[in-house]
Amino acid sequence: MKIRIGMFGFGKTGFVVANEIIKDDECELKWVLRKSRKNEGEYASHLHGYEFGQGKIYPISEIDPETFFKENFVDVIIDFSASSAVDIYKHAARFGTRIVSAISKYEKKQLDQLKALGNIVPVLYSPNITLGVNFLIEVSKVLQRIVPDADIEIIEEHFKGKPDTSGTALRIAEDLGLDRHKHVNSIRVGGIVGKHEVVFGLPNQTIRIVHESLNRAAFGQGAIYATKWLMGKAKGIYTMEEAVMLTAARNLQIYESNA
């Protein structure tokens, strides 16, 4: 049986993510909720050129959360919209719907709400849901333990119109115990999708760990990975770093047992 997915957000990233879900043979995009009324009643699949109908589009303002999530049950909600969306899909948790949130920044109230949902259903929260950047975070933490005296700087590059500091860069700084105001450097040029670099400075050498998203499809692939991983988990709050590293550790154990 396919994993039934509902999605919040249908902007530049959400549009691409929807296509990745539609292409995956193990998933089915049941519906999309978006802030505007654009494409209301249409199917995301049709907008991507498919002949079949998948991912009917609804404006958030037109649904009744008390009934919508029961009548349109999905196994997982993937959120690429805004932090306030948790006010809407908190109702879905009552019916056992899991949550994958890829929101880069949360207001404290909404973040507390999201964490509270972990007492009801499995919730995975990651400000950057790509596989590569979460691997970068874990590798950086390992390297910091190996060379604790290294100077560390974080560089994040994004498209010219991105207004705020990357939530991913702030997460990296937090995980490495660095002051976000002193060690996070931002660059805004052209149409860069997203690039993060952690620089370790040592007396006689420099180590750079880099991840770059070349296409927004990387976010969709990460969200699908997170969705499939979350299906087998008990209620609680999880991170993409856990999903990546626990899988890597399991595969390493299998490799060692077969060696």
Name a few traits of the molecule.
Rossmann fold, Dihydrodipicolinate Reductase, domain 2, alpha/beta, globular, 2 domains, four-stranded mixed β-sheet, seven-stranded parallel β-sheet, 259 residues
How does this model look, in words?
It is built from ten helices and eleven strands. With 259 residues, it is α/β, with parallel strands linked by helices. It has two domains: 147 residues, Rossmann fold; 83 residues, Dihydrodipicolinate Reductase, domain 2 (2-Layer Sandwich), CATH 3.30.360. The radius of gyration is 19 Å and the shape is globular.
Strand content: 15-25%
Mean pLDDT value: 92
CATH architecture of the largest domain: 3-Layer(aba) Sandwich
- Biggest beta sheet attributes: 7 strands, parallel
Fraction in helix: 25-40%
Structural class, judged by helices and strands?
Answer: alpha/beta
Strand order of the largest sheet: 3-2-1-4-5-6-11
Q: Total strand count, please?
A: 11
Number of helices: 10
Task: Record the SSE blueprint.
Elements (H helix, E strand, L loop, with lengths): L2 E6 L3 H12 L3 E8 L9 H4 L8 E4 L5 H7 L4 E4 L6 H4 L8 E4 L6 H10 L4 E4 L5 H16 L4 E8 L8 H9 L4 H4 E5 L5 E9 L2 E9 L3 H14 L5 E3 L1 H19 L1
Parallel strand pairs: 1-2, 1-4, 2-3, 4-5, 5-6, 6-11, 7-8
Antiparallel strand pairs: 7-9, 9-10
Helix pairs in contact: 1-9, 6-10
